[in-house]
Amino acid sequence: MGKWEILDQFYLIRDYCRAGYRKVVLCAAGISLLDGVRPFITTVLLGYLLDAVYEGAPFGRLLRIALTALGLECLCYCMSSILSEIHNQKHDYIYEQQNGLLNKRLLTMDYKYLEDPNTHTMLHTIRNAGTDHGLIGLVLEDWKDFFQALTAIVTAVVIAFPLFTQVNPLREGFLNSWLASLLLFVVIAGLVYFSFRVDIRYGKRIRRSHQKRAADESLLEYYMGIFESSERQKDLRLYGQRRLVQEQTDAASGRVQKEVDAEAALAAKEEIVRRAATALIGLFVYLFAGLRAYLGLITIGSVVTYAAGIVQMSEAMADLMSVIASIRTHAPYCHDYAKFRKLGSRKEEGKKVPEYGPGSRFHVEFDHVSFHYPGSSEEVIHDLSLSFDTGKKMAIVGKNGSGKTTFIKLLCRLYDVTEGCIRVNGVDIREYDYEAYCDLLAVVFQDFRIFAFEVGENIAGSGEMDEARVREALDKAGLAERAKTMEQGLHTFVGKEYDESGVNFSGGERQKMAIARAIYKDAPFVIMDEPTAALDPVSEYEVYAGFDRMVGKKTALYISHRLASCRFCQDILVFDRGKVIQRGSHDELIEKDGMYRELWNAQAQYYRRIDR
Fold first, then answer.
1. Which residue numbers delimit the ABC transporter domain (predicted)?
2. Helix (H) or strand (E) holding 136
3. Burial, 546: exposed, middle or buried (Cβ in 10 Å; 0-12, 13-18, 19+)?
């Protein structure tokens, strides 16, 4: 095993211990030691008992030997059972504990990694690497077996050492020589090494089989999400795609089952080879020990002790080799975990805190900003320079892919610029404390999420809420009447995932909740990416008509494909290919040739209909 193969696994175990589960690891270590030693207690004392019987020892001595063996066996078994009970109380939920570690990392890593497909590939590999106990359970089980086998080998060597070292100087012959002992040792080592190579070879074949079915397992997970979603099922049913999905899932399930059967067959063949090697070792050891007893070099009881000890040692060595092979097989998964945990954390190096209060003014400046997404050389924002002051309502328009949403992501520091810098009140935003800077922003993204929490918790973003402020925010967002119909009031759950009394709100109602959440935050900057995309025309009109009431004198930035919203804004930025190609008020831009007038004229017929 390479150094990094071991270190990656210890990183995983260390993180698990630091998460508060050190007791599980310590219990696993104790179980390894006890289970490694326990089988030899009976072996050693049985040899003593046979020698005592052969010598004609009194019954009392025989009884003491038997009770000692039984007592030590029971003591080890009880201690192992107690540790196992403590271990299993936590170990049964180790997959959930593992997901807790992964989720904690997801919450703290830089946002750019969340949109990187490689991150999700690693995450899928880690989550699906092991059994129901996950990758951590798999690694802990490997190392528990490793130390158990190592303990058994050390114990067996101590017990069986005299078999190889005892010689009778008064006798001659090959069996009474060091050469015979060396030859037996070489035979045992050779068979164990052969078993190890078989484990490695079959382990690689099993991993290749697992990799072959990984894509199909991902596909089945994706389809499972479709089956469980009532919203997605609507499209399946209306477009007659159920048969297509069923055929694809059946085909993927068949391929997965084929690979699972192949893995089971490989595991069975591997076990047969291991058992055969162990049986041959036992045969050679018993033959060697029996002949040495026949020559009077060891006692009859020693034959049982030494031979049984060496057989157990050979089994432990085979187990050790198998575990090493298993550790090496699982090492790539742990390497994925090591890479995942090393992904950069959120950029929080800044220490400055922006000062603001009622009536505070801010000046925002984009200074020759360029940006391309990680893994791509294509610039989404190109040499952008602009500035604006707070207190204005700004619209950001342009065709799809023009850089509008990326502009907002950079302003929100979800990504840092590739070149140039963004300043707020003359300070590079990277110099601000990340959390303090985020307090300046209230954002409603186009792909917003309302969670399966209580309505009030969703709006306040916390379990502690100011109910009066929540109701005011709902009122400004146009949900006051809907809120009055909820039996549990602000404590009504969104959806029925966690509470049967929850309410399935419509898409438009959820979007209004997202707007209310932004209003409740009461931040100096309000940013809305397609804020009315899921609203009907009447609700859309209500939102824009109550625009001033919602945001007051705050700075408001809107991304919208519906240019009707631009009439409510004093400043309009027209994006194209990562640059601002036009800027001005609605009246100014509508009088000029350019993209804004082109977009406006394309939609004007619908505005006239609404105005009528």
1. 364-602
2. helix 134-165
3. middle
